[in-house]
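A common beginner's mistake is to predict each chain separately and then try to dock the pieces by hand. The better habit, illustrated here, is to supply every component at once so that their relative placement is modeled jointly.
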Amino acid sequence: MMRIFFVFLQINVFFKVKNLVKVILFTLTGLLLFASMFQKITHLWDFKKLNGVEIPSPKPALTFQNYRDGGFQDSTEAFLKQHFGFREPLIRFYNQYLWDFYKTSNGNRGILTLGKDGWLYEPWSVDDYYQIQYHQHASSAKEMTEQLLSEAKRVYQLQHILEPYGTHLFVCLVPSKDMLYPEHLPEKQDTRYDDEPKMSARSVLKDEYKRLDVNVLDMGEFFQQMKDTADFTIFPKTGTHWSKYSSLFAADTLFRYMEHLGNINIPNMVIGPRTLQDAQEADTDLENLLNLIRPLPRPQYYYATATSDKDSTAVKPKMIIIGDSFWWNIVYQVPIQEFFAEFPYWYYNSSIYYDPIHHSVKDINLTKELLSADFIVLFYSSAQLYKLNNNFTKKALLALCYDPEEIESAHAKLEQNIRSDSDWIGRLQKASQAQGKPLEELIHNEAQWLIDSHPERFFPALNDSIPTKRSKWVESCLTKDSLYIIEQETEKIIANIRSNEAQMEAMREKAQQQGKTLEQTIHDDARWIVNYQIEHGTLQIPPHK
Amino acid sequence: MVFSSNVFLLYFMPAFFLVYFLMPRKIRNYVLLLASLIFYAWGAPEFIIQLIASTVANFFLVKWMCKTEKAGLKKLLCGLSIIIPIGLLLFYKYGNFTMENLNAILGLTGHAPLTWKRIMLPIGISFFSFQSVTYTLDTYRGVNKPMEKLTDFVLYITMFPQLIAGPIIRYCDVADQIRSRESTMDDRLQGFYRFVIGLCKKILIADVIGAQVDAILGPANFSLLDADQISNIFTKVANLDSTTAWIVSLAYTFQIYFDFAGYSDMAIGLGRIMGFKFPENFDNPYTSRSITEFWRRWHKTLGAFIMNYLYIPLGGNRKGKGRMYFNLWVCFLLSGLWHGASWNFVVWGALHGFFICADKLFLGNVMKKIGKVPSVILTFLTVNLIWVFFRVEDFGLAWLLIKRMFAFDFALLPFSANAQLYVTMIVADFFSFITLTKFGQKVEEKVYFNDFTNGQHIAVWIVAAFAFVFCVAALNASSFSPFIYFRF
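With all components supplied together, the output reads:
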C-alpha cells in the first residue's frame, strides 16, 4: 500500500497536482473513444445477441472503381453499423429509453405498433385492418384489385390443371392479428390515405375464389368462431403469429380439410393435456424485436404437445406448403412426419425447408415437384396476400404449359426486342455503367423480369380460361405411377453413382464448378439421365390418361 | 465522412487523436494534414485531386503576387487566385442549375434542350472555396503575410474539422495558430465537451425532428422522385390540419438550427482539442429581435465573409442609401444562392434581404418599441415562415404548406401519437430561448466559455461521456429494424 501511495504521490508531483484530474479525465476520454474498437478486437465481454433478423451488410472489398463511385465507403459504413464493439448493449440501452419514455420502438415507422392494454402489432397489421396496406404494393386500389383478380384466375387455372394428376391445390387463408383482435388496435393515427379508396386483399380474393369455385380453407373464419368460446388467446398479446397452442388447432383443421379434399384418411392428431406456463419465445416474437434490457412481464399461456394416433390404415401423402412464417409455429409444434411422407416448405416461394435435397426453389424441377405432390397449399396470412403468392402461380403455369425450349425462345426474342429498341437499350446501358454490371446481364434480367411479371403477354395459352396446352414432359408421361417409376429409376442411378469412386470424384468436381452441394449435383445428374432415357424411349412409363 | 457516423466516431477520430498526440509537436501539422486528406478522400474521391491541385496553384499564385512589385501583375494574380476556387464553385455547384434554366428557356422558345452529364457536387466546396478567397484577399490587402510552407496552406484549406460545413475561418484568424499553438488539458477537455454538445444537437435533436419532417415533406430535392411520389407528398401536405402544418414548419426551423449549430460545435470542439480557437458561428439566433440581429447571430462567419469580401467592396453604406439597399439585396440574394443552387434559395435570400432593408427603413424601430418578448416572437415567426422556402424546393408545395398553416383548421393532436417529436421540440425550444433569461446566459457562459474547477470537470466529463455513449447508441439503434424472420 505504501508503495502505491508513493507512486501516486510521485505522479501527483509530476503533474503538479492541479493537472492530475484533467490528465486522468483526458486519458479516460481516450479510453472511451477506443472502447468500442477494443471490444470489437478482443470480444472481452459477451453480450446477449440482438433478437430478429436483419439483412447482413457484407464486408466490402476495396477496388478502385467502388472507391471512386463511393460504393466502398457506403458499404463500409453499413458494415460498421452491424459490426462495432458494444453494439448489442448500446442498441438495447437506446431501445429501453424509447420504450420507457415514449412507448415506441426504433426504426423508421417503427417495427411494431403499441395497441391498447399493452398489445403489440406489426405496423402492416394495423395498415391491413384500415385497408390501406395496398399502398405498399400498387399505385392505386384499382390496380391492386386487378392484380388480385388475375392472381385468383391463375390459382383457379392451376387447380384445374393439376387436378387430373391427383394433385390437390388449395388456398389456406391465414388470419392476421388485427383481424381477430381489432379491439386492442391503437386509435387510428395514420391519416395519409384518408382520402384514398380502401381495399383488402383478403376480401377481394375471398369473393373471387368463391365465384371461381377455388378450393379455400378460411382459417380466419374458423378462429373467429372459436374466439368467442375459447378460453385461450388465439394470438398472444406480444406476438404477431397465432399462438403455439392455437397452431395445434390450425394444423388439425388443415389436415381434416385435406382428408375431405383428397378423400383419403390421414392419421388423426391427438392433442395432449395442456398446461399453463410462462409465455415461450415464439409467443412473444414481437416483444423480442424490441430488444429491451428489461423484458416486459411474461404472460401465461396454455401449451400442449401433439402426436398422431398411429392409425395403420391411414396414408401419409406428400404436401408442399408455399407460404409465410405462420407455418413455423405449426411445424415447430406438430410432428409433421407422423402425418405426411414429405412436407417441403417453400418459404415465400424462395428458400426450401424440410427437403433433404433442395434448398431453393430456383434449383427444383418445378413440374416434377408439383405433379408428385398430393397437396399444394398456398398458405399466406392477410398482409402477405398482396404479394400475389410470390410469383408461384405464374412460374407454375408456365412450367406446366410450356416447354423449356419455348420459354427460352420467347426469352431470346424478347432480348432481341430490347436490343433493337434504342431508348430501352440506352436506359440499360446507363444502368450498366451506374451499377458496374455487364450490359448482357441486365438485358437478360430485364427479359426475365418481364416474363416473370406478365407471362400471359408472351405465352398466349395462359390467357385461356383453363389452358389446354401442356409441356411435352407433362403431356408425355405424368401420372402418379409414372412419377413413382421415375423416382425409382433416379434412386437406382444415384446408388450407382455413389458406388463408383471415379464418378463420385467427377461429381465433386462438378459440384465445385457449379457451386452446388454434392447431394444436389448427384441428384440433378441422375434426373438428367432419367429424362434422357424417357426422351429416347429407353425408360418406359405409362402415358397419362 | 460525416462526424455523426460510426466510421468517424469509433474509428477515424480515436485513431487520429492517438497518432496526433503521440507525435512530437513539429510533426502534428503533418498528421493533421494527412488525416484531413484521408477524411476528404473518403467523402469526395473524385474531387480530391482537384482540391489539392487548386490549393497548390493558389499557394504559388499568392506567393508570386506578394513578390511582384508590379501593381498590374499583382492585381492579375490576385484575380486569378480568386477565379480558380470561385470557378470551381461555379462549375460544380451551379453547373446543373445553369443548364436546367438554360434548357427551360430553350424549351419556352421552341428550341431543343442541350444534353449534359449531371455534375456531382463535391462536399464542402462552398466552404473551402471561400476560405481560399479570404487567404488571397487578406494577403493582397496586407492583413497577413503569405504562408511560407505549402503544407501549412493546404492544411488551412483542408483541415477536416471545418472542411465540410464550416465555420468559414478567415485566413487572418487562424494563420498564427497553424504555425504555432498550445493545447492545454483544459482545451482538450473543453474541446471534447463542445464536440459532445454538438453531437447531441445533431443526433438527439436535429435527426429526430428531421425524420418527422422528411416523413411529411419528403426529400428536399424532388429530382429522384417519380410523379406518383411527388403527387403523394402534395396530397399529404394538402390534407394537413393547421396544427400539423405549424408543427412541421417549426420542426424544420429547429432541425436546421440544431443540425448546423451542432456541426459547428463539433468543428469548434475538435479544433479546440488540438489547440485551435475557431470563431463562433452561432449566438442564439432565435432570440433575435429583428432579422438584422438574426443575421448577426446566425452563421456569423458567413455574415462576416459577406460583409468583408462582398458588401464593403460593393461600397457598403458609403455610397448613399439607395446603393446601400441595393448592396444589401445583392448580398442576400447571393447568400441565398450560396446555400443551394436552386430558385427557392434565391427567394429565401431575397426575403431576408427584404426584411433587412425593412429593418433599416422602419421595422427596426417598430421592433424596438414593441418590447423584447413580442419582437423576439415576431422575428422568430418570420424566420420560421421564410425557412419554408429554404426547406421546400418546389414553390407550389412551399405555398401549399403556408396556406395550410394559415387555414385556421386547428386540430387537437394526442401527445402520445408522436411523443418523441413533441418532447424533442420542447427541448429544442428550451435550448433555443433559454438565453433570453439571465440564468440562461449565465449557464451558457459557464458551459461554453469559462474554465472549470477540477470538481466541475469531473461532473461535466461524466455527463459528456454519458451523452457521447447515448449518441452512439441513438445513431445505431435508429437504423436497426430487424424482422422476426426473413421476408422475401
